[in-house]
Design a protein that fits this description.
Strand content: 15-25%
Strand order of the largest sheet: 4-3-6-1-2-5
Helix content: 40-55%
Number of helices: 12
Bound molecules: flavin-adenine dinucleotide
Shape: elongated
Number of domains: 3
Largest sheet: 6 strands, antiparallel
Structural class: alpha/beta
Number of strands: 12
C-alpha cells in the first residue's frame, strides 16, 4: 500500500477524496449509530442531516484553503480553489434548504424568524446564514462590486469564522443531537481543527516565515513592463523547487500582514541561493516592485503548484505555450532543463503584444544554444517588416507547429484567461489528449 501511494499520484489524490467524503459523512454515521430519541419523522431528520453535512463541508473549507502542501501537490491550487468554490455553494444551498424544510413541514417554526423574539439558537442560525450569504455574494461578484483583493480576503476569513462558529453554536443550542457526548466530541474536534488551521495559516506560519527571511539582491527591468526581482536567502539555505512552481511573496512589511502575493519562480529550480521572479506591473503591489531597494527584506511561502515538467520525466518532449508574463514559469522550466542538459525537444509558442514587449527575448535566444529549443513568436501588433506569425495564438498557428503525433508531448499553457481558454479548446480540437494539457492560471479570484 505504501509503495502504491509513493509511486501513484492518482492513488494519493483518490485517497484524499475518500478522506474528504468520510469526514463530511462522519456526522451522519454518528447520527445513525446513536440516533436522538426525537420521533419527529423523516423530513425533520432529513433537514437536520443537511444542516450537519453543510456544517462539516464548511469546516472542511479551512483545510482546502490552508495550503496544505500534501493536498495541494495532488491537485494544484486552481483545482482546489474551484472545488472550494463549488462545495461552498453546495453547502450554502444545504444551509438554505435545512430551515426551509422545517418551515414547510412545521409552519409554527416560522416564528423563529422574528429575530428580536427568537431564542439565541435561532438568532445564531440567522446570523450564520447572513454571514454565509455575504461571503457568497462578495466572492462571486467581487470584481463587479469593486472590492480590492486584500480587504476581500480579510473579510472572507472573518465571515467564514463567523458562519462556522455561529452554525456550531446553533447546533449546540438546539442540543437534540449535539447534547450527546460522542457527538459533542466529534463536533468540538471539527471546530478546534478549523480554529487551529486559521491560527496556523494566519499567525503561526507567518511567524515561522520571519525566521527564514530573504534579502532583495537586485531588481532588473525586463521587456514588457516586467521586473525581475532576485532574492537571496538570509541565514538559511532557501529552497529548491520544481521548475514551473510558484511561491507566496511578502515584501518589506511584516509577514503578519495579509499582503502576500503569488508569483511563479522564473529562475533555475536547482539554485536556492538565488530565487528570481518576473513580475508584471498591473496593480498597487506590482507597480511598486521597480522601486524596491536592494537589501529589502522579503518572505516566501512555497514552493507550491503542479505546473511542472518534473512529473513527466518519461515524455518525449514538451510544447510550452505562453502569453505575455505567462512566460515566467516556462522560462524557469527552460533554464532548468538547459542546465540539466535535457536533450528532449522543446517547442515554445509565445504570444506577445509587440516585438519590443517580448519578455526575456534575448535570454530565450541564448537558451537555443543549450537546448533543442524551437521558438515561435506570435506578435499581435507587428511592424511591417515582421516575417513571423502575427495576431493571436490560435488553432491555425498551433496546427502549423505542434508535432503531428499529438500525444507524444506534454503541453504546458500559461497566459491570460482568454488565451488559455482558446488554446485549450484548440488543442482539444486538434486531438491533443486532455491528460497531456497542463495549465497555470494567474488569477485565483
Ligand atoms: C499561481 C500564480 C502565479 C503567478 N505568477 C505570476 C508571475 O510570475 N508574474 C506576475 O507578474 N504575476 C503572477 N501572478 C499574478 C500576480 O499574483 C498578480 O498579478 C498580483 O498579485 C497582482 O497584485 P496587485 O496588487 O499588483 O494588483 P491588483 O490590481 O490588486 O490585483 C489584480 C488581480 O490579481 C489578483 N490578486 C491581487 N492580489 C492578490 C493576492 N494577494 N493573492 C492572490 N491574487 C491576488 C486578483 O485576481 C486581482 O483581481 C501569479 C498568480 C498566480 C495565482
Amino acid at each position: 500500500m505504501r509503495r502504491l501511494l509513493m509511486h501513484s499520484p492518482i492513488a494519493v489524490a483518490l485517497l484524499w477524496i475518500l478522506a474528504y467524503l468520510l469526514i463530511t459523512l462522519l456526522p451522519l454515521v454518528v447520527m445513525v449509530l446513536h440516533p436522538a430519541p426525537s420521533g419527529r419523522g423523516f423530513w425533520v431528520e432529513f433537514s437536520v442531516a443537511l444542516g450537519f453535512i453543510a456544517l462539516a463541508l464548511m469546516a472542511l473549507q479551512f483545510v482546502l484553503t490552508a495550503r496544505v502542501n500534501r493536498i495541494e501537490s495532488s491537485y494544484g491550487i486552481d483545482i482546489l480553489l474551484q472545488f472550494h468554490r463549488y462545495t461552498s455553494i453546495v453547502a450554502f444551498l444545504m444551509v438554505l434548504v435545512h430551515p426551509a424544510i422545517l418551515f414547510i413541514t412545521q409552519p409554527e417554526t416560522l416564528q423563529l424568524l422574528n429575530f428580536p423574539q427568537a431564542p439565541l439558537r435561532a438568532q445564531m442560525a440567522v446570523l450564520a446564514t447572513l454571514a454565509f450569504l455575504a461571503m457568497v455574494i462578495t466572492t462571486i461578484w467581487r470584481k463587479q462590486l469593486k472590492i480590492p483583493y486584500e480587504p476581500w480576503r480579510a473579510s472572507h476569513t472573518i465571515l467564514a469564522v463567523l458562519a462556522v462558529g455561529l452554525g456550531f453554536g446553533h447546533g449546540l443550542g438546539v442540543g437534540n443531537y449535539l447534547g450527546y457526548f460522542w457527538k459533542a466530541v466529534l463536533w468540538s474536534g471539527f471546530m478546534l481543527g478549523a480554529l487551529w488551521l486559521i491560527l496556523y495559516v494566519r499567525l503561526i506560519k507567518p511567524w515561522m516565515m520571519t525566521k527564514r527571511p530573504y534579502l532583495v539582491e537586485e531588481v532588473i527591468p525586463q521587456r514588457g513592463d516586467v521586473w525581475t526581482l532576485a532574492l537571496r536567502p538570509y541565514g538559511h539555505n532557501g529552497f529548491t523547487f520544481n521548475p514551473g512552481q510558484f511561491a507566496w511573496l511578502t515584501l518589506n512589511i511584516t509577514p503578519l500582514s495579509m499582503r502576500e502575493h503569488p508569483f511563479s519562480m522564473s529562475s533555475n529550480g536547482d539554485h536556492p541561493e538565488r530565487i528570481e521572479f518576473g513580475i508584471k506591473a498591473i496593480g498597487d503591489f506590482t507597480e511598486r516592485i521597480k522601486d524596491i531597494e536592494p537589501g529589502t527584506r522579503a518572505y516566501l511561502d512555497g514552493p507550491y503548484g503542479v505546473f511542472t515538467t518534473e512529473l513527466y520525466w518519461d515524455t518525449a518532449g514538451f510544447v510550452l505555450i505562453a502569453g505575455g508574463v505567462g512566460i515566467t514559469p516556462i522560462f524557469s522550466i527552460l533554464k532548468t532543463a538547459a542546465e540539466r542538459k535535457d536533450d528532449r525537444p522543446f517547442l515554445l509558442i509565445y504570444g506577445s503584444k509587440s516585438w519590443d514587449d517580448v519578455t526575456y527575448r534575448e535570454e530565450l535566444e541564448e537558451l537555443k544554444e543549450k537546448l533543442d529549443l524551437e521558438i515561435v513568436h506570435v506578435i499581435r501588433k507587428a511592424e511591417d517588416d515582421w516575417a513571423g506569425e502575427t495576431g493571436y495564438v490560435d488553432k491555425d498557428v498551433l496546427e502549423k507547429y505542434i508535432p503531428r503525433h499529438r500525444g507524444s508531448r506534454q503541453y504546458f499553457i500559461c497566459a491570460a484567461p482568454v488565451m488559455m481558454d482558446s488554446v485549450e479548446r484548440a488543442l482539444f480540437d486538434l486531438g491533443v489528449p486532455v491528460t497531456h494539457v497542463h495549465m497555470e492560471h494567474f488569477n485565483l479570484a
